[in-house]
Amino acid sequence: MKIPEEFHRAKKALVAGMETERQPFKTMWRELADFILPTRYAWLMNDNERRKLMTKNPNIIDGTGTRAARILASGMLNGITSPSRPWFKLRLKRDPSNQNYTVRRWLDEVERLLLQTMADTNFYNSLATMYLDLAIFGTSAVLIYEDYKSVFRCYNASLGEYFLGNSSTGMVNTFARQFKYTAAQCVERFGEENVPEQVRLNAKGGDSKSLNSYTVTHLIEPNDGKLPQVPKIFAVRELYWLSAGTDTIGGSIASGEALSVRGYNEMPGIFPRWEVSGNDPYGSSPGMDALGDIMQLQHEQKRKAQSLDYMLRPPLRADIQLEHRPTALLPGGVTYIAGINNVGAEPIYTVNPPMQAITEDIREVQTRILEFFHNNLFTMISQLESVRTATEIDARREEKLVLLGPVLERTENEGLDQAISRIYSIMNRAGLLPEAPESLADEELEIQYVSILSAAQSAVGAAPLERWLAFIGQTAAMYPAAINAVNWDEVIRDYGRDIGVKSKHIMSAEEAAQRTQAQEELLQAREAANQGTALVQAGKTLSETPVGGGSNALQQLLSS
Predict the structure, then answer these.
(1) Residue ranges of the domains in the chain?
(2) Among 21, 300, 335, 453, which residue's Cβ finds the most Cβ atoms within 10 Å?
(3) CB atoms within 10 A of CB 51
(4) C-alpha distance from residue 185 to each of 65, 190, 191, 213, 216 (Å)
(5) Following CA atoms 40, 43, 44, 48 in sequence, which dihedral angle do they give, to the nearest 10 degrees?
(6) What whole-number distance in Å separates Cα of residue 441 and Cα of residue 119?
(7) Tens digits of per-residue pLDDT, 387-398?
(8) pLDDT by residue (tens digit) across 112-132?
């Protein structure tokens, strides 16, 4: 596919600049991979290192860091985006409480379809990998593409193969990566008509040449309308081109050829980060915070093992007469020597390290690593020494959740918001969502997270309201007018939303006013009816009460 040569050169220079910007981070990522999860991130190594890694891993003696990272990733998956329960709701952005029955029914159906489709794809598997990337490296990239078989598919790009660029607001808006494809894979992915001649010939050969590898560059960036193949109506554009390979294809590259060019209405990827410093496109992570302790732990465990070896198998000195004679140093072995007065074998020196102090220090380091990865939050209940009340458990949980508040918000803003919007757009274009009611024509929707962690975080915000209402209740015992300071309608609605009550269970202000008016009218009608009944009964009583002269009390009352 022909593209302007000047444009092509500019994009190659852009990717090269992004690679240079990423270089300082790569050293840190390599250390994190070596000491936490090396087998999964072997792409940071060359071919010789990768082959050695498949047989042994010399850096990890104590797997506390690896286990802690996996616990954090699993806890975030089940606490934020649990596959077993709804974890988000859709609502009106302008007035979330003002939703009639038709709107709520449509929103509930859309939510159901979104969650069902997510469960039927590899979405949750991809999220598990995303959370693990965030825990260890602080940065993750997930691409979400349409799929004719399963509506959409997710692809986790490996950190080290991609580059990121920020917008002026600090949000990631540019993604590039370089990866290897064989000639056969190039033809399968992009089509024969879009690959260079030599690649096509190698793929058709069916021999070893079809396995020749090529470096493919992939770029996703905002669309400025300067590429003719992508009109400005698309917000984002995507390009693929061959950068290098085992064949001489430099002419094809220089001529400005692309393997694929496409436009998107929205960004087809999400790029969440754990924590960001300044305008860096890459984030920091609990793994970075814990790396020093993890490396110290490996050192201490190694020295502890060496100390045990010295204690159990100390270096020996022996009589010269034993040099060429068989000796039995195993338990129960007997070694025969010539003279009774000759010395056999004995330790050169005695090793007696302070094993208790070493063990205690190792335990302290392990505890610090677990705390860096917030394991105490996800394993809090199991770690309680005795049975606690639900109130105490909630108090401890809320205390620890405060530490995850900024991370939770960033994960929702940079990752989940974009993912849900992308999936919604894909399904809506495919006609898989019900038609929206006419009343929503000018309305904008927003996402409300109702996961376990989100609800618990919201509950932390509800605590001041609970304390204030408790104070009002105590004050009202001495000063009854204090109760008038509370706007009860709004308090009830806000508290329900803060603790995660579903929106369909909370009546809007308009609906509440209508119900109150209907109840008042019904009460007035009943009072009027009761008054009429009382008058009829009184008339009957008067008519039955004789007053003499052949008349009753009612007649006397009317004639007076």
Answers:
(1) 180-225+235-259, 524-559
(2) 453
(3) 11
(4) 37, 8, 9, 9, 11
(5) 110
(6) 29
(7) 455 555 555 656
(8) 999 999 999 999 999 999 999
